[in-house]
Amino acid sequence: MLADDPETARRISSARGDWILQDSEWNNFKDCRNLLSYVVDVEYDQSILLWHIATEFCYNLDSNDPKYKDVLTKIEHCKTLSDYMVYLLVMQPTMMSSVAGIGQIRFRDTCAEAIKFFSRRELGPEVSQKDACDRILEVNTDVQPVDVKGDRSKSVLFDACILAKQLKSLDTKKWGLMCEVWVELLAYAAGHCRANDHVQLLSKGGELVTFVWLVMAHFGIGEQFQINEGHARAKLIVGK
Protein backbone atom coordinates (compact mmCIF):
# COMPACT_ATOMS: atom_id res chain seq x y z
CA MET A 1 0.00 0.00 0.00
CA LEU A 2 1.28 3.49 -0.86
CA ALA A 3 1.09 6.32 1.63
CA ASP A 4 0.44 8.80 -1.17
CA ASP A 5 -2.41 10.78 0.36
CA PRO A 6 -2.78 12.69 3.64
CA GLU A 7 -5.36 10.33 5.14
CA THR A 8 -3.23 7.22 4.61
CA ALA A 9 -0.13 8.96 5.99
CA ARG A 10 -2.12 10.08 9.03
CA ARG A 11 -3.42 6.58 9.63
CA ILE A 12 0.10 5.13 9.46
CA SER A 13 1.36 7.67 11.99
CA SER A 14 -1.49 6.92 14.41
CA ALA A 15 -1.11 3.12 14.23
CA ARG A 16 0.25 1.39 17.31
CA GLY A 17 -0.14 -2.26 16.42
CA ASP A 18 -3.66 -2.11 15.01
CA TRP A 19 -2.56 -1.44 11.42
CA ILE A 20 -0.66 -4.70 11.14
CA LEU A 21 -3.36 -6.68 12.93
CA GLN A 22 -6.22 -5.27 10.84
CA ASP A 23 -4.82 -4.49 7.40
CA SER A 24 -2.54 -7.30 6.43
CA GLU A 25 -2.24 -11.03 5.99
CA TRP A 26 -2.35 -11.41 9.78
CA ASN A 27 -6.02 -10.45 9.80
CA ASN A 28 -6.77 -13.81 8.21
CA PHE A 29 -5.73 -15.54 11.43
CA LYS A 30 -8.51 -15.68 14.02
CA ASP A 31 -5.96 -15.73 16.85
CA CYS A 32 -4.48 -12.47 15.55
CA ARG A 33 -7.86 -10.73 15.52
CA ASN A 34 -8.19 -11.65 19.19
CA LEU A 35 -4.97 -9.74 19.87
CA LEU A 36 -6.45 -6.40 18.78
CA SER A 37 -7.80 -5.68 22.24
CA TYR A 38 -4.22 -5.47 23.52
CA VAL A 39 -3.59 -2.41 21.35
CA VAL A 40 -6.94 -0.73 20.75
CA ASP A 41 -8.68 -1.25 24.10
CA VAL A 42 -5.78 -0.17 26.32
CA GLU A 43 -3.74 2.98 26.80
CA TYR A 44 -0.48 3.26 24.86
CA ASP A 45 1.75 2.90 27.93
CA GLN A 46 -0.26 -0.14 29.02
CA SER A 47 0.17 -1.66 25.58
CA ILE A 48 3.95 -1.27 25.78
CA LEU A 49 4.11 -3.06 29.13
CA LEU A 50 1.71 -5.81 28.03
CA TRP A 51 3.67 -6.59 24.88
CA HIS A 52 7.01 -6.24 26.68
CA ILE A 53 6.14 -8.82 29.33
CA ALA A 54 4.54 -11.14 26.76
CA THR A 55 7.68 -10.79 24.61
CA GLU A 56 9.81 -11.66 27.63
CA PHE A 57 7.74 -14.78 28.32
CA CYS A 58 7.94 -15.93 24.70
CA TYR A 59 11.65 -15.08 24.45
CA ASN A 60 12.62 -17.18 27.45
CA LEU A 61 10.54 -20.10 26.18
CA ASP A 62 11.64 -20.02 22.52
CA SER A 63 15.13 -18.52 22.19
CA ASN A 64 16.95 -21.78 23.01
CA ASP A 65 14.45 -24.10 21.36
CA PRO A 66 15.84 -25.64 18.12
CA LYS A 67 12.35 -25.41 16.59
CA TYR A 68 12.75 -21.63 16.45
CA LYS A 69 16.25 -21.46 14.92
CA ASP A 70 14.89 -20.18 11.59
CA VAL A 71 13.27 -17.17 13.29
CA LEU A 72 16.07 -16.47 15.77
CA THR A 73 16.87 -13.14 14.11
CA LYS A 74 13.26 -12.01 14.52
CA ILE A 75 13.31 -13.20 18.13
CA GLU A 76 16.37 -11.07 18.87
CA HIS A 77 14.91 -8.05 17.04
CA CYS A 78 11.71 -8.34 19.10
CA LYS A 79 13.66 -8.60 22.33
CA THR A 80 15.76 -5.54 21.46
CA LEU A 81 12.77 -3.37 20.49
CA SER A 82 10.80 -4.55 23.52
CA ASP A 83 13.59 -3.66 25.94
CA TYR A 84 14.16 -0.34 24.22
CA MET A 85 10.53 0.74 24.40
CA VAL A 86 10.35 -0.01 28.13
CA TYR A 87 13.62 1.87 28.58
CA LEU A 88 12.00 4.91 26.93
CA LEU A 89 8.85 4.56 29.03
CA VAL A 90 10.64 4.19 32.36
CA MET A 91 14.01 5.90 31.92
CA GLN A 92 13.07 8.72 29.53
CA PRO A 93 9.84 10.06 31.12
CA THR A 94 10.38 13.58 29.77
CA MET A 95 10.83 12.31 26.24
CA MET A 96 7.72 10.13 26.50
CA SER A 97 5.60 12.50 28.58
CA SER A 98 3.07 13.14 25.79
CA VAL A 99 2.32 9.42 25.36
CA ALA A 100 3.41 7.82 28.64
CA GLY A 101 0.15 8.19 30.56
CA ILE A 102 0.55 6.46 33.93
CA GLY A 103 3.28 4.16 32.62
CA GLN A 104 5.50 4.75 35.65
CA ILE A 105 2.70 3.68 38.01
CA ARG A 106 1.85 0.63 35.93
CA PHE A 107 5.52 -0.38 35.84
CA ARG A 108 5.87 0.04 39.62
CA ASP A 109 2.70 -1.95 40.37
CA THR A 110 3.65 -4.70 37.93
CA CYS A 111 7.08 -5.08 39.54
CA ALA A 112 5.44 -5.17 42.98
CA GLU A 113 3.04 -7.91 41.90
CA ALA A 114 5.88 -9.97 40.42
CA ILE A 115 7.89 -9.65 43.65
CA LYS A 116 4.85 -10.71 45.70
CA PHE A 117 4.23 -13.67 43.39
CA PHE A 118 7.77 -15.01 43.71
CA SER A 119 7.97 -14.28 47.43
CA ARG A 120 4.83 -16.30 48.17
CA ARG A 121 6.30 -19.26 46.31
CA GLU A 122 9.72 -18.81 47.94
CA LEU A 123 11.38 -18.36 44.57
CA GLY A 124 14.64 -16.48 45.02
CA PRO A 125 17.18 -14.93 42.63
CA GLU A 126 18.71 -18.34 41.96
CA VAL A 127 15.66 -19.29 39.86
CA SER A 128 16.37 -19.06 36.14
CA GLN A 129 14.40 -16.63 34.00
CA LYS A 130 12.87 -19.51 32.05
CA ASP A 131 11.69 -21.24 35.23
CA ALA A 132 10.30 -17.94 36.52
CA CYS A 133 8.35 -17.46 33.28
CA ASP A 134 7.09 -21.03 33.41
CA ARG A 135 5.78 -20.54 36.95
CA ILE A 136 3.86 -17.41 36.01
CA LEU A 137 2.44 -19.00 32.87
CA GLU A 138 1.20 -21.94 34.94
CA VAL A 139 -1.22 -19.63 36.75
CA ASN A 140 -4.86 -20.17 35.83
CA THR A 141 -6.00 -17.01 34.04
CA ASP A 142 -9.56 -18.06 33.27
CA VAL A 143 -10.67 -15.36 35.70
CA GLN A 144 -9.83 -11.85 34.53
CA PRO A 145 -6.92 -10.40 36.54
CA VAL A 146 -8.89 -7.26 37.43
CA ASP A 147 -11.46 -9.46 39.17
CA VAL A 148 -8.69 -10.94 41.33
CA LYS A 149 -6.58 -7.91 42.19
CA GLY A 150 -9.23 -5.20 41.94
CA ASP A 151 -8.77 -1.93 40.10
CA ARG A 152 -6.49 -0.19 42.61
CA SER A 153 -3.40 -1.98 41.36
CA LYS A 154 -2.36 -1.02 37.85
CA SER A 155 -0.28 -4.16 37.38
CA VAL A 156 -0.45 -5.78 33.94
CA LEU A 157 1.52 -8.93 34.86
CA PHE A 158 -1.24 -11.48 34.42
CA ASP A 159 -2.93 -9.62 31.56
CA ALA A 160 0.41 -10.01 29.78
CA CYS A 161 0.38 -13.67 30.77
CA ILE A 162 -2.93 -14.09 28.92
CA LEU A 163 -1.48 -12.28 25.88
CA ALA A 164 1.57 -14.55 25.90
CA LYS A 165 -0.64 -17.66 25.98
CA GLN A 166 -2.57 -16.36 22.97
CA LEU A 167 0.66 -15.63 21.11
CA LYS A 168 1.95 -19.14 21.81
CA SER A 169 -0.88 -20.54 19.68
CA LEU A 170 0.74 -18.89 16.64
CA ASP A 171 3.88 -20.99 17.11
CA THR A 172 6.83 -19.69 15.03
CA LYS A 173 4.62 -17.19 13.17
CA LYS A 174 4.18 -15.09 16.29
CA TRP A 175 7.68 -13.63 16.02
CA GLY A 176 7.03 -12.05 12.63
CA LEU A 177 3.81 -10.56 13.98
CA MET A 178 5.44 -9.30 17.18
CA CYS A 179 8.27 -7.64 15.24
CA GLU A 180 5.75 -5.67 13.21
CA VAL A 181 3.73 -4.69 16.26
CA TRP A 182 6.88 -3.39 17.96
CA VAL A 183 7.83 -1.37 14.89
CA GLU A 184 4.40 0.29 14.98
CA LEU A 185 4.71 1.00 18.72
CA LEU A 186 8.11 2.57 18.12
CA ALA A 187 6.87 4.65 15.19
CA TYR A 188 3.89 5.85 17.24
CA ALA A 189 6.22 7.09 19.97
CA ALA A 190 8.47 8.75 17.40
CA GLY A 191 5.58 10.61 15.78
CA HIS A 192 3.89 11.71 19.00
CA CYS A 193 6.81 12.82 21.17
CA ARG A 194 7.36 16.57 21.12
CA ALA A 195 9.69 17.91 18.45
CA ASN A 196 11.66 19.91 21.02
CA ASP A 197 12.45 16.73 22.94
CA HIS A 198 13.71 15.07 19.77
CA VAL A 199 15.94 18.07 19.03
CA GLN A 200 17.39 18.05 22.55
CA LEU A 201 18.26 14.37 22.23
CA LEU A 202 19.93 14.97 18.88
CA SER A 203 22.30 17.43 20.56
CA LYS A 204 23.36 14.56 22.86
CA GLY A 205 23.84 12.01 20.10
CA GLY A 206 20.22 11.07 19.61
CA GLU A 207 18.01 8.10 20.41
CA LEU A 208 16.74 5.46 17.99
CA VAL A 209 13.25 6.92 18.38
CA THR A 210 14.54 10.29 17.19
CA PHE A 211 16.10 8.82 14.05
CA VAL A 212 12.80 7.07 13.34
CA TRP A 213 11.13 10.48 13.74
CA LEU A 214 13.52 11.95 11.16
CA VAL A 215 12.74 9.14 8.68
CA MET A 216 9.03 9.73 9.20
CA ALA A 217 9.55 13.45 8.60
CA HIS A 218 11.39 12.64 5.37
CA PHE A 219 8.41 10.64 4.10
CA GLY A 220 5.85 13.16 5.29
CA ILE A 221 4.25 10.82 7.82
CA GLY A 222 2.45 12.51 10.67
CA GLU A 223 0.34 15.63 10.77
CA GLN A 224 3.22 17.95 11.59
CA PHE A 225 5.18 16.58 8.62
CA GLN A 226 2.44 16.53 6.02
CA ILE A 227 3.44 18.06 2.71
CA ASN A 228 0.53 19.64 0.89
CA GLU A 229 -0.51 18.63 -2.60
CA GLY A 230 1.50 20.37 -5.26
CA HIS A 231 4.83 19.97 -3.50
CA ALA A 232 7.37 17.23 -4.14
CA ARG A 233 6.59 14.28 -1.91
CA ALA A 234 8.07 10.82 -1.42
CA LYS A 235 5.92 7.70 -1.18
CA LEU A 236 6.38 5.11 1.54
CA ILE A 237 5.77 1.46 0.70
CA VAL A 238 3.88 -0.29 3.49
CA GLY A 239 3.29 -4.03 3.10
CA LYS A 240 2.69 -5.71 -0.24
**Termini, distance in Å?**
6 Å
* Class per helix and strand makeup: mainly alpha
Low-confidence stretches: 230-240
Using DSSP, what is the number of strands? 0
Strand content: under 5%
Described by strand count, sense and barrel closure, the largest sheet is: none
Q: Tell me the series of helices and strands, N- to C-terminal.
A: HHHHHHHHHHHHH
> What's the gyration radius in Å?
19 Å
Assembly category: single chain
Give me the number of helical elements: 13
Helix content: 55-70%
Which geometry do the CA atoms define? globular
Mean pLDDT: 83
What descriptors fit this protein?
mainly alpha, globular, 240 residues
Give a quick rundown of the structure:
Helix content is 60%, strand content 0%. The protein has 240 residues and is mainly α.
Describe this structure in words.
This protein has 240 residues and is mainly alpha-helical. The protein is 60% helix and 0% strand. The protein is built from 13 helices and no strands. Helix 6 runs parallel beside helix 11. The radius of gyration is 19 Å and the shape is globular. It starts with 5 loop residues before the first helix and ends in a 22-residue tail after the last helix.
Question: Layout of SSEs?
Answer:
Blueprint (H helix, E strand, L loop, with lengths): L5 H9 L3 H5 L7 H4 L3 H4 L3 H19 L9 H20 L11 H18 L8 H9 L7 H5 L7 H12 L4 H20 L2 H8 L5 H11 L22
Helix pairs in contact: 5-6, 5-8, 5-10, 6-11, 11-13
